[in-house]
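INPUT
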Amino acid sequence: MADPVITTIEIILMVPVALILGVLFLFLFRKLNARFQWRVGPVIRMYSDLAPLIGKTRIWQPLYDILKLFGKDTIITDVAHRRLFVYSPYFSLLFAISAAFFIPFPGMELLSSVPYSLVIASYLIISSILFTILGPVASGSPWGAIGARREVELFLVSELSFVLSIFSIALSSGTLVISEIAGRGWSAPSILLSLTSGLLLFVAMLGKLHIKPFDMPEAEAEIVAGPYTEYSGKLLGIYFLSKTFLTYVLVALFIALILPPASTSIFWLPAWAFAAMVLVFLLTVVQVLNPRYRINNALYWYVKVVIPVGLVSFIIAFFIRVVA
Amino acid sequence: MGIIDRARVYSPWLYHLHCGGCNGCDIETLAALAPRFDAERFGIQLVASPRHADILVTTGCVPKQFIPMVKRVYEQVPEPKVVVAIGGCACGGSLFYEEEPENYAILGSPDLMIPVDVYVPGCAPKPEQIINGIVQGILKLAAKGSSRKRREV
Amino acid sequence: MSVPAKILKQVLSRYSSPMTLKYPSGVDPSKKYSQIPEGLRGVPERDAEKCVGCRACFMVCSGRATRIIDLGDKRTVSIFLFRCTYCAHCQESCPEEALKMTSKFEFTIGEREDKGAYVDTDLEMLRCKSCNTAFLPKKMEKRVFERLQEKMNPLVKEVVLSDYKKLEGYCPECRRARSTNFDTHTKKWLWLEVK
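OUTPUT
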């Protein structure tokens, strides 16, 4: 493990970095989404005559959304279980931020070299999502409850995909420490493994970030806003903040596990940024090309795709392990 | 201007409340949000729950059976909020509203029960006019100042 | 160029620039609006010089947006734009062609009582000589007289005009009370017939 002082500094530095990167990823996601729909999306350079009135750029649009929500009333219904309703967003944010500490960023090793960091990181991600389920359940709103139920089902299957993916990689490299996995070398079978388990992790990301075929928890045409229906003001802002961090965490985890050397040293930063942008681009392509699945379709789809690919992935990982 | 006050101008979220009427204004409102006039350029988004909204966009005149819903949706929008009435029916009742004799089914424009900040008259207004009205609403929103109360409902 | 390359080029050219207008910004004024079709009916405008307050627009207004408000010596012809449906019936029916639909559409109003929400014209009223009630806009009286002269049968012109001098300035009620003095009163013609 690295020097504790450096680790502390890195951890303190990681929070703004993760926030900024998460906001930029979400902005890129929205912008690309808009361009695929033949429109402009949040403007990068505001028109010269409007700039003094409404600001020069909208690159920080997701951050403005969150900040605005902090300046609004918070409404709490009396049917809600108060304590759970109020504290769930905070816990969700807490776990999302602490998950960011276990994932290496180019130039920052953070806590990724502690033993079993892969297990810790995956548990923190799971906990963060769990609290986005608990809050809505406590809100007492039927829409929140339906959204939370869908979220649970989606969470279970996407977790299957997630776990199969990260543990086949862990099996192939024989370690549960993220920094060691992120520093592993390349070989012909490991490229194949990266493909299969990368696909699994990508599919898991779709479910966790509610990208289009799997956005049924937030299906605004059917169940208002799903889990977030009863949330308003600051609490909603904290959920959005937690989602911003989670976006960063999943993208960083994908690059750390699937594209090995990219998050080990500061010199790999351009490659890391490029990979992240490509990943967000791919997420956007999936989002714009797909309609929303029904929840049962999504379950079948996950089982149909994930189990064969997961098996192939495990066989490759086992093969690499035995040969090595 | 503080960062939160500025953020409020930068990201107004709309909740579209259709009270009644002929759907013409709703089509135009959606046209104002669609790619041709892409309102997301300025951070304007259509949200599904009134609890997330800053600007309540109402269209159509209010039937008497719909009065409680209008009031309830208005109360659910957290402060600071602005109401933009779109179309002749939402502004003054238009064809459907009569003072004398009173219509048995139609109450009239929503400003008889909730405070309306910006009126966008027209039958139906062009999308440009609607965007103009929403911009006026944003300017009023900026003037209202932030609120961080916790309201129990 | 091969066919797939052509298709690719077309697709790329289609998606290379978004279709969004720059609307609220007027950087390029000629491209500010999407499309203003010819004959777009926008806010009606009234020529205060031409309007005589004849109530024709009030009679045909489908949304009941037009109102006639008589207050003492003043008649206000008013269109409440919040209720106006831009149907242009008033433009069609106006005998003086005072009303015109403009293509102005980009306007919003903050309050119900705002002056911008009304298209108003104030007219001075004529008072009856005997009972002193305001009954007709002065302009309308003048205009009716002009029209009368234009369209009258030359045979009866002299009689009618002399009668008109007698009844000038009386309200319809008082006119009826004095009608027996007129040369055009039916009674006189009846008497002639009998004779």
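end of record. The CA atoms of residues 14 and 55 of chain B lie 5 Å apart.
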